[in-house]
Amino acid sequence: QVQLVESGGGLVQAGGSLRLSCAASSRSISNYNMGWFRQAPGKERAFVAATSFGGGRTYYADSVKGRLTISRDNAKNTVYLQMNGLKPEDTAVYYCAARSIYRSGSSSDLPREYDYWGQGTQVTVSS
């Protein structure tokens, strides 16, 4: 079991920045590819970004490229999502997720491919 706890969400004006953190416990995340997803009211959970287990590869949804940056610090057992240039359409609950390295491929944009999830943190961007 990997327990994930997100933090750093909040209310920000359009154009502002936030940095989300995802702290893992019970097990090292070095054996997991990590991802961020988000879910807006009335919508399905959507892929935002992912990073390979060593951090050497990153993947982004087209809607966030150039504005959001995923990173990880395996020594701190933490994954980050730096969010710049925020837009009202970025408003959602953001979830951190862990995907075992034993699954095929270093990344996936499908929620069902992830093994563990955090409880989420709310991000609200006002116009």
Please give a handful of descriptors for the protein shown:
127 residues; mainly beta; seven-stranded mixed beta sheet; globular
In which range does the helix fraction lie?
Answer: under 10%
How far apart, in Å, are the first and last alpha carbons? Answer: 39 Å
Q: How many whole angstroms does the radius of gyration measure? A: 13 Å
Element-level helix/strand string: EEEEEEEEEEE
What gross morphology would you assign?
A: globular
Quote the average pLDDT: 95
H/I helix tally: 0
Strand percentage: over 45%
Q: Helix/strand-derived class?
A: mainly beta
Report low-confidence residues grouped into runs of 5 or more: none
Biggest β-sheet strands, sense, barrel: 7 strands, mixed
**Quaternary structure of the protein:** single chain
Beta strand count:
11
Short synopsis of the structure:
Helix content is 0%, strand content 50%. The protein has no helices and 11 strands.
Layout of secondary structure:
Layout (H helix, E strand, L loop, with lengths): L2 E5 L2 E4 L4 E8 L6 E8 L6 E6 L6 E3 L7 E6 L4 E6 L8 E9 L15 E2 L3 E6 L1
Description of the molecule:
- Strands 2, 4, 5, 6, 9, 10 and 11 form a 7-stranded mixed beta sheet that branches.
- By secondary structure, the chain is mostly beta strands.
- The model has no long low-confidence stretch (mean pLDDT 95).
- The protein is built from no helices and 11 strands.
- It is globular.
